[in-house]
Fold this protein.
Amino acid sequence: MSETILKATNISKIYGKHKALDKVSIEIKRGMIYGLIGENGAGKSTFIRTIMGLITIDEGDIELFGETGMKGLQQARRKMGQSIETPALYPDLTSRENLQVQAANGGVSEREIDDLLRLMNISNTGKKKVKNFSLGMRQRLAIASTLITNPEFLILDEPTNGLDPSGIVEMREIIQRLVTERGITVLLSSHLLDELSQVATHYGILHDGNLISELSREELASVTRQYIELETTEVQQAVVVLDELGIRDYEVINGTEINIYDQLDDVANINRSLVLANVNVTRIGTTRQKLEDYFLQLTGGTTHA
Ligand SMILES: Nc1ncnc2c1ncn2[C@@H]1O[C@H](COP(=O)(O)OP(=O)(O)OP(=O)(O)O)[C@@H](O)[C@H]1O
């Protein structure tokens, strides 16, 4: 069992009469990329800020790197990096100069700075000043500057916010690299489940201050898995054909619909077999439940993520 980096137990935070967090428990183990998902106001930033020690909690316990209590947490937080606000970047300096300023007291070598610039895909920005950077470049530089202290645990609040689709993909790749190349454990947040899909290893869904669901990447893939949607007026005969084809993993949805989770590459063959058996196929094709639909289903579909 790998080491627990963060254990938050029954954390509550109350603003006036409003419970921004209501007994939220989250455990993050070394090597995880934990994605905290929730619509605006769900409590993501509040949770992150309590972990950072920026706001106090009204109830619950926080354990970081096995440490608890004010003093212990203060020490443990030295192993953490965070990029939760517009970072203090110097607009008139280049990316390298910015990192040099950050590194000034830390004994960080030029080689390490080179490595950080490469890791964040900003090694080719040369003499360009930060004020002329795109949002994505600025965000990547901000992450690079938090890595100067060599954190073991990194917290990123909405790292994909405001980025265009290619910027989102790039950010995902970089986060992945932090884990594979540096072994950093990551907690990040987003209001869009889709944006963190493929990168997070675990997901926690926050809604109105409650953690309403927690699932692994594999579990998420299975609830939103791809399947063949078959529409027919003869469900019973269709089932006989599916059995003959050796298909076991299917679900009869209603009198006209069957979802097939097996032999996804064989739609044409399934269709042919059905037609040959005189089954009237009105529609057949592969489909996938969209992540955002799944999210809305979980949160009651009243709000948009
Ligand atoms: N300092 C504060 N005083 C009063 N209420 C607050 C304060 N900070 C947050 N809240 C409230 O707590 C709830 C959770 O806010 P939080 O910022 O954690 O949500 P979020 O999920 O991070 O959303 P966003 O993506 O908009 O930042 C919201 O209803 C918000 O209005």
About this structure: The chain has a mean pLDDT of 89. The pocket of adenosine-5'-triphosphate is lined by residues 15, 18, 20, 38, 40-46, 191 (CB under 6 Å). The chain has two domains: 4-90+149-222, 226-288. The longest helix spans residues 165-182.
